[in-house]
Amino acid sequence: GTEGRAPMACRFLLAVLLASSAWVAASAGAADEVMVPRPAAAAAALTFGEGYTQLFGDSNLRLHGDGKRVHISLDERTGSGFASQGAYLHGFFSASIKLPSDYAAGVVVAFYVTNGDVYEKTHDELDFEFLGNVKGKEWRVQTNVYGDGSTAVGREERYGLWFDPTQDFHRYAILWTNRTIVFYVDGTPIREVVRSEAMGAQFPSKPMSLYATIWDGSSWATSGGRYKVDYKYAPYVAEFTDLELRGCAHAPPASCEPEAMPSGQRAAMERVRARHMTYGYCYDRARYPAPLPECRVGAEVAMYLPSGEARSSDRRRHGKRHRRAGAADSSL
């Protein structure tokens, strides 16, 4: 996910979590730096057999490249998915993903960590959900955070992408420590959740496993369910590669603590959020007349409708102006 960018060495290291990984800085336009997690040569991504197991979907999950690439598909019979073999208390989880092209309304591809199979009523979850669309309109990315079974309290954010996620692989990552959660796209942070007293147990705090699934979300995924999955376009295939699990299964939480987010990385995150975020739960006054306690709402609230949707139609359509593959993106 760093095509067209010149990597530079940097000193931002995660103590134990990424002890075998190197973090490199990459240029994302003028003098800005973005911290991009990249594995060291000796820390190759796991093959499917080394770290994962199939969840469902029989022949709709296929392995390629000696187990280094996984294709999961949705057709009239079933979706499909896989999960990590182990559970982790904090970690760094990432994959390069290529989404189905053409008409994909109603299709949901999810890359997430959860413990719902162990803690049915008090589960934790951190989500990347990719929501398909009708032909000619872009996939949207949604992130969400649940803790201690807080499914009645949604913390969704949605973003338009600054590239076409169906044309090439792009890297999506979740960093989870005992103090912070960060979501990344191609090494650029797009969301940070900082643990606070106000969140209490709703900050995820129990071991979780990694999951990747594709399924029929016709009832809600595209325009609130207006557009359904059309199986004449099936199979819908999502491709995964470079699967990384940097978990802290047995380490004390403090060993997984990163340093503070560097200022250049934070500036890049703020630009992405200002230009590409199309919905934020903290700005949804219809749903939450009083913002949830962790929300810090300032003057930027004027950029959002009472529904939490971005006012700017240009922002909502920003994904149409995709950059050429391999070209530097100065819009971040």
UniProtKB/TrEMBL annotation:
Residues 1-28 form the signal peptide. Residues 314-325 have a biased composition (Basic residues). SUPFAM superfamilies: Concanavalin A-like lectins/glucanases. GO terms for cellular component: apoplast. Keywords: Apoplast, Cell wall, Cell wall biogenesis/degradation, Disulfide bond, Glycosidase, Hydrolase, Secreted, Signal, Transferase. Contains at least one intrachain disulfide bond essential for its enzymatic activity. The keyword Nucleotide-binding does not apply. Pfam families: Glyco_hydro_16, XET_C. Catalyzes xyloglucan endohydrolysis (XEH) and/or endotransglycosylation (XET). Cleaves and religates xyloglucan polymers, an essential constituent of the primary cell wall, and thereby participates in cell wall construction of growing tissues. This is Xyloglucan endotransglucosylase/hydrolase. It comes from Aegilops tauschii subsp. strangulata. The lineage of its organism: Eukaryota, Viridiplantae, Streptophyta, Embryophyta, Tracheophyta.
